[in-house]
Amino acid sequence: MTDVTSGKSARRPHHWRRDLIELAALFTAVVVADTIAKTVVRGAEGPFMLVFSAIALIATAAFHTWWERRHSHAPPVAHTGGGTTPPPARSEDAGTDGPAEPVATVLWRMRTTVRDTPGSLAALCTALARHDVDILTLQTHPLAEGTVDEFLLRAPATVEAGHLTREIAAAGGSGTWIERADAHDLVDTPTRLLGLATRTALDAAELPLALRQLLGRCTIHSLPAVSLSGRPTGETAPVEGVLEETVMRLRDPNGGAITIERPYLPFTPTEFARARALVELDARLGPRMPRGQDVLTLPEGSEITVRRADQRDVVAARAMHDRCSARTLGLRYHGPVGDADRYLNHLLSPRFGRTLTAQSSSGRLVALGHLLWDGDETEVALMVEDAWQRRGIGSELLGRLVAMAVEAGCESVYAVTQSSNTGMVAAMRALNLPLDYQIEEGTLVITARLAAARPANRPAYGEVPSGSPRQGRH
């Protein structure tokens, strides 16, 4: 916030010595005038003295004018803040000679509801200023009654969140919510919205991630209109969407509904309008996906192409299912082999995650890798055709999927398999990440913690991984 100098601090100091000097000058002028008058009246040289006095006054006025013009172009004294330049600090007020040590600060995101009346925002700003809290950004979310004000604050590290909440409540704020922020929150809202819209426009799979970054910590569920068995699920939403406190429902362009939940903080109409605009953009652009691809050379010399896949690859994926053994399908889908084809539309939909495929030089799909958004969690799954197993293809796809998860800000990924699936277990261990194992009735759940992962160690799709088979880009 801009520092404002108050009228009290800007007032010039008033000294009694100046009054005495001005009074003495007045008396002196009276005496000189009286002497000149007596000389002019009584002396013979009176007219000459008047002429000499006039010349002296003209010369003095000319010198004064020249002096003022010369110094009027001098650069102003630099100072911070507004208003009149404050007087320099006295030596006893300055303390030590060196500059003051910087005060440690932290960033906070705070949201509070105030009455929509003049002066309500000023009361909040005054309460924050009393504790040397700087307001970096401010957003207002109008409501039917009142206004939600969202601040990005820089506060001294000694000021605790609970203390700020109490001060805001005393200043008229209600329903106050506060959490730590970081440097990414310094981007202004219009720039951030344009960035999210660009990501959504380039890749349909980015919509759930863009919504999560737009709305903060929330749970997003994409509910299809038709179940895997082909029956209607009844999941739908009006074209304009529905907003209910901590839940919003939007119509999915692919059919069904997108449900967003944020129990800890109600949504505002402004946030609802922004989320609906992103979904409408996705609907207008239709199916889209980055078409880049990488050509990898396997150790035995065969070449495969790794690329993104979507629902346009359903036919080729079903043909790969036909070439896979019942054991391979059972390890992947954990259910009746005959139901495997029903999952493909769901798995290849960009609404539910991202899919990578490995393609042979003849154009056949020989492997599929999925990164699936599962509410607050993220699942990874692999399937490699029998004839192409044990060649490092699954590990290559898994590394790229984990890099995508890291890029998307996921905290962990998990894989559901069977304890006998040694290939999947080996691929997870090859990630060199902390792993958690949980076994229930023969089902093994392996969770990889991504906090220790670095994007440089595992490339995102389209980047060259270190230590991998030789690679070229098309």
Q: What's the SSE blueprint?
A:
Layout: H1 7-10, H2 16-42, H3 46-71, H4 91-94, E1 105-114, H5 120-129, E2 134-142, E3 147-156, H6 161-170, E4 174-180, H7 189-202, H8 207-215, E5 219-223, E6 242-244, E7 247-251, E8 257-261, H9 269-285, E9 293-297, E10 303-309, H10 314-323, H11 326-333, H12 344-347, E11 353-360, E12 365-374, E13 377-384, H13 393-407, E14 412-418, H14 422-429, E15 435-440, E16 443-449, E17 471-473
Antiparallel strand pairs: 1-3, 1-4, 2-3, 5-8, 6-7, 7-8, 9-10, 9-17, 10-11, 11-12, 12-13, 14-16, 15-16
Helix pairs in contact: 2-3, 7-8, 7-9, 8-9
Number of strands: 17
Order of strands across the biggest sheet? 13-12-11-10-9-17
Percent of residues in helices comes to 25-40%
Residue windows where pLDDT falls under 50 for at least 5 positions: 1-13, 74-95, 454-474
Rounded Rg = 37 Å
Mean pLDDT: 79
Principal-axes geometry comes out as elongated
Q: What structural category characterises the helix and strand content?
A: alpha+beta
